[in-house]
Specification:
alpha/beta; Rossmann fold; 5 helices; 5 strands; 51% helix; 15% strand; globular
Length: 157
């Protein structure tokens, strides 16, 4: 099933490079050319993924990520950042801002698809883990109440 993806990138050519193949793969792709327009889009629709450039006019990627993570309605949306910044401190800063995956420019479509797949797998694993712990919590408490650990040899009275 396709995702609803918001592409936030100031370069129109790059937005098209992202939109066309992602659309062909069955994803619904909406676009914003800066962080201000992205915030407006986020107010109108629920997205499964955001692909975001860091350096943009008006409101850049750093500001956008802060607003996304501060808002309870958007904080759980995974973000892939596209950046030309190669220094570790910048990449670590992105992860501190809650980025799920970062891609250095220039990049290939294969790198982007790998990032999307990795995030999808993590989401699926999280949902399975959550479902297991939620469904297991009732039986677990009963099992713990009825489970008696055999005394170790030195613990016998």
């Amino acid at each position: 099933m396709g995702k609803i993806i918001l592409v936030v990138e100031d370069e129109e050519v790059l937005r098209k490079f992202l939109r066309v193949p992602l659309s062909e793969l069955g994803h619904e792709v909406l676009e914003a050319e800066d962080g201000e327009k992205a915030i407006a889009q986020l107010g109108r629709k629920r997205f499964d993924l955001i692909i975001c450039d860091l350096l943009m006019p008006n409101k850049g990627g750093w500001q956008l990520m802060e607003e996304i993570k501060e808002n309870p309605e958007t904080r759980d949306i995974p973000v892939i950042v596209l950046t030309a910044k190669t220094e570790d401190k910048d990449r670590l800063r992105a992860y501190d801002h809650g980025v799920a995956y970062d891609i250095l420019k220039p990049f290939t479509l294969a790198q982007l698809l790998y990032g999307i797949q990795m995030i999808s797998n993590n989401d699926r694993e999280e949902k399975l883990r959550s479902a297991y712990f939620v469904s297991d919590s009732v039986s677990h408490s009963t099992a713990c109440e009825s489970f008696h650990h055999p005394a170790a040899p030195g613990d016998r009275e």
